[in-house]
Write a structure and sequence with these properties.
With about 140 residues, the chain is of the alpha+beta class. The protein has 2 domains: about 60 residues, no CATH class; about 55 residues. It contains 3 helices and 5 strands. The strands form 2 sheets. It has a 3-stranded antiparallel beta sheet with strand order 3-4-5, with helices on one face. A two-stranded antiparallel sheet has the order 1-2. Strand 1 and strand 2 form a beta hairpin. The longest helix is centred in the last third of the chain and has 22 residues.
C-alpha cells in the first residue's frame, strides 16, 4: 500500500468550535460498485461525488470499501459504504441539532430532562469533534 500523503500546507483543522476551515466535498455522495475484472468474487464499492460524473478522467472517488474480505456477501461492506456516503447529511444533522440541544438544555438545567439533554448534547459534541483532524494526526504507512 502506498503511503497516504497530505501536503504540508493543508489545513484540516477547525478554526473555532465546529466550523471547518477546509471544506469537504459537498454531498450527497453516491455509491458505485466496481467488479474486479480478474476475480468475480471481489470488487470495490466507491463513494463518489456525483458532481464529477462527467469529468473526463472519471468521477472523484471520495472513499473506497473493499468487498473481497466479505465476498460473496455485500451486506456489511454496503452498510459501511452507505454510512460513509451519508456523512455530509449526518454532519448537517449534527450541526443543526447542536444549538437546539444547547438551548433546550438551558431551559431544563437541573432537571431529569436536562440531564438527558446534556447527555445527548455531549454525544453530538463528541461526534462533531471526532471529525476534527490535523495533518499531524494522519498516519503514514510505508
Amino acid at each position: 500500500m502506498r503511503p497516504f500523503l497530505v501536503p504540508a500546507s493543508a489545513d484540516l483543522a477547525y478554526s473555532k468550535g465546529f466550523e471547518m476551515t477546509t471544506k469537504h466535498t459537498p454531498g450527497p455522495w453516491l455509491i458505485d460498485y466496481e467488479l474486479d475484472d480478474l476475480d468475480s468474487s471481489a470488487g470495490v464499492l466507491r463513494i463518489i461525488d456525483p458532481a464529477s460524473l462527467d469529468h473526463p478522467q472519471g468521477p472523484l472517488t471520495i472513499a473506497t470499501v473493499n468487498v473481497a474480505a466479505h465476498a460473496p456477501h455485500l451486506d456489511e461492506p454496503l452498510a459501511n459504504a452507505a454510512l460513509i456516503a451519508r456523512a455530509p447529511l449526518l454532519m448537517r444533522a449534527l450541526r443543526t441539532a447542536l444549538p437546539l440541544l444547547e438551548a433546550s438544555y438551558l431551559d431544563h438545567d437541573g432537571t431529569e430532562n436536562g440531564r438527558a439533554i446534556f447527555a445527548g448534547l455531549e454525544l453530538v459534541r463528541e461526534a462533531l469533534s471526532s471529525v476534527i483532524i490535523s495533518v499531524d494526526e494522519v498516519t503514514h504507512e510505508a
